[in-house]
Amino acid sequence: MSKINDSILDFMQNKAYKPMLIEELADVFKINKGELREFQKILDDMEVSGSIVKTRRNRYAIPEKMNLISGKLQGNSKGFGFIIQDKEELEDVYVSAENLNGAMNNDRVIARVIRKGNGDKRTEGEIIRIVERANGRLVGTFEKNESFGFVVPDDKRIYQDIFISKNDMNGAKNGYKVVVEVTKWSEKRRNPEGRIVEVLGAKGDVGIDVLSIIKKYNLPVEFPDEVESDANMLSEEIPEEEYKRRRDLRDTKIVTIDGEDAKDLDDAVSVEKLPDGKFKLGVHIADVTYYVKEKSSLDREAFKRGTSVYLVDRVIPMLPKRLSNGLCSLNPKTDRLTLSCEMIIDRTGKVVEHEIFESIIRTSERMTYTDVTKILKDNDEETVKRYDYLVPMFKDMEELCKILYEKRMRRGALDFEFEECKIIVDEKGKPIAIKPYEREIANRIIEEFMLVCNETIAEHMFWAGVPFVYRVHETPDEKKLFIFKEFVYNLGYYVKPSKEVHPKVLQEVLEEIKGKKEETVVSTLLLRSLKKARYSPECLGHFGLADRYYCHFTSPIRRYPDLEIHRIIKSFINGNLNENKTKKLTKFVEVASKQSSEMERLADEAERESEDMKKAEFMLDKVGMEFDGIISSVTPFGMFVELDNTVEGLVHISNLTDDFYVYDEEHFLLMGERTKKVYRLGDKVRIKVAKANVDERTIDFVLADPFEEEE
After folding, report:
1. Residue 426: is it exposed, middle or buried by C-beta count within 10 angstroms (0-12/13-18/19+)?
2. Is 573 helix (H, G, I), strand (E, B) or coil?
3. What angle do CA 436, 423, 688 make, to 5 degrees?
4. pLDDT digits over 510-568, tens only?
5. CA within 20 to 30 Å of 105's CA: 239, 274, 341, 473, which one?
6. One-character DSSP codes across 505-517
7. pLDDT tens for residues 63-122?
């Protein structure tokens, strides 16, 4: 947040403050006529973000002063909703269906409190203003009658169907997936109205399911003609002057190590063991900014997209394929432009020297995680022979990886051992297998090398004092952390008390539970207690990594923050950061941080939904089959059970028929009133698949034998 925003909030929080007009505020902050438009924009942005509100008489104040709350509405399929307040530490506020007043899921709203929370009862509110609409376009299924129709939204948190008149059907047939544009928002007892702007196809057609998710999140599949044209005009030839001015590393043994199906190879590594026992680690990243010039059509499109999106059956790239899979990809035995960070690392894992420079490389091989693991773990004779000239370097990499990992653990970094899975689909998009991602030594090598590089770059640029985009992870919320401490204490684990929590304290708990039955559940609960990492122009540290300095430098093909900081780094090391450019950058890194964080969240949601949908589809033919699982979450309405393949389903409380079960929020368990039988977070259970609903992305389980007594 800028200094003027902070000043406005400080002023409004004063006890004597009374709501003021913009002209009155402009006088207070000495804003002249020429600056009034910019000042108005700042107030508008603050209103949209929820930090201030504007009254019907155009006066500004902070919500608390007016008994108002601001936040995003989280809808429910049953018609009510909750306002998720802007300040994380504040409770969610319940809004009944009659008090929504036309607001829909994800709308930014202002509400007045109509009933304060008391004991078990939540605070209740009534929405009085919709500050920003979130659902101008929706994806859903068209249901046609003779003279009109309705679109049933895919997002079940939008409980109202959209009314479509005969003139606005755009040729859609009954049961088709469509995109609808809302033309009239809902009022009390009236559905919203809209017109169909795109017909996607019949519900069961190949690819329509994932296309519906793409449209729901408004993900841009095609690149504008101008962007594609500009990408195609880029020359494959590297000019002679680039060879002359860059450091030539083409004779250095450098490799990329990625998954078998990776096509955008943006990072390469080299390791040399020095005579004194130290290591020289080189991390060489594709110099995307050489091709994507500032403010070009390619840059504007990359900024808008923010990140590549990895859905189950396809990738929506941040950059056109000519760049992501071609010119910028560090393909083997091909000259490529890079930005390198070379680090001298001692036996304790400390970076004692480092240098950042523009370079030109020619990778020796395109290695896969599988092949490097075969060399280092399996000592596979055929693979060792094939890459014999690189084997000593891989062994040095393994040694350095272990040193860097141990250093991270000593300082208190949190290392979660979650099972991640990849969903395999056939040519028709049907899920045929769910396989775990292997986190073998090769994966760990790249992970550790990228981490230390990102840390080194962030620290270097912090002390250079130039505008920058940091990756930050703030200290956890005290309330959530208190719940976590209470929970693990009840399991027999003790979290040392301290004024300010340090990740080392939490890491000790993770170490203590390793290999025990409660490992997954404790790790999951801790992860839920942490804040979400984001991008920021301020260096606020990274709690999870237990590090003061961190950024994203290593993936400029698929993440905009990396692209932008490459541009900043190159300007800095070439002495091109004058006062005027620094001033412009200061504004831009704030905008880029916000945009990148928002697009990352959007991509995460779309990726998660595509996985949930395919998991539900995968379980369709498993109905009636039994599996072992672990209770991953306990709620008042039942418990979620996660299977070994990461598929999660709900055992609804109504299906626990042997007793009446009561939810114990403090201990994350359900207890039978009569039998005192307990189902708690982390318990192993055997379930039977009862139902899978692809449309709702849900899977229902029942206990395989709910009447079986424990021995």
Report:
1. exposed
2. helix
3. 80
4. 888 888 877 877 888 888 889 999 999 999 999 999 999 999 999 999 999 999 999 99
5. 473
6. HHHHHHHHHTTST
7. 877 778 888 999 988 889 999 887 766 788 999 988 998 899 999 898 888 888 776 678
